[in-house]
Write a structure and sequence with these properties.
By secondary structure, the protein is α/β, with parallel strands linked by helices. Helices cover 41% and strands 20% of the residues. It is globular, with a radius of gyration of 15 Å. Bound molecules: adenosine-5'-diphosphate. Adenosine-5'-diphosphate binds at residues 8-10, 14, 16-17, 20, 36, 87-88, 90, 94, 119, 123, 126-128.
């Protein structure tokens, strides 16, 4: 059984993240969405909120589970017995960062493969930070995020 980990901040989840899940769900037996708990970053949504939103999204799939991790990603991946890390690529700037991370992870744990999915062009500009920016400026974000994100955001204020 090939288990894949889809790690990220998911602050908040977007339809770009959902698109990646839709595409990897038929490929792997099990997918663990791993919400990153990074004390160095100050996310807008707490780890509990991010986990809750991803769990609601995961209900649409029969092989997606949600967990969280802190520390080294490869240590987490090894601990849960997964073999593959999934990352998405949107633009050239993603590539540089992802390339460096994948090489570092490969050096730390050569038995784990990082696999990349090219963004669906419909979501190429959709990122958590763009969504937060549009929302902060009073724009409508409903076509970029799943409904649960709108609900949680409403409850925040
Ligand atoms: P991180 O802080 O780890 O980059 P994100 O939540 O921003 O966490 O992203 C998690 C993963 O999802 C990353 O690999 C990112 O490239 C990918 N991703 C985010 N948005 C999209 C999108 N619109 N299309 C494809 N991949 C995406």
């Amino acid at each position: 059984m090939i288990k894949a980990v889809y790690p990220g901040s998911f602050d908040p989840p977007t339809l770009g993240h959902v698109n990646i899940l839709q595409r990897i769900s038929p490929i792997f037996e099990k997918i663990i969405v791993a919400v990153a708990v990074n004390p160095a970053k100050t996310p807008l949504f707490s780890v509990e909120e991010r986990i809750y939103m991803m769990k609601e999204i995961a209900k649409n799939f029969n092989n997606v589970e949600v967990d969280h991790f802190s520390g080294l990603l490869v240590e987490y991946v090894k601990k849960i017995g997964a073999k593959v890390v999934i990352r998405g690529l949107r633009e050239l700037s993603d590539f540089e960062f992802e390339f460096r991370m994948a090489l570092a992870n490969r050096s730390l744990a050569p038995e784990i493969e990082t696999m990349f999915l090219m963004t669906d062009p419909a979501y190429s500009f959709v990122s958590s930070s763009v969504v937060k920016e549009i929302k902060a400026l009073g724009g409508d974000i409903s076509k970029y995020v799943p409904d649960v994100v709108l609900e949680v955001w409403k409850r925040k204020k």
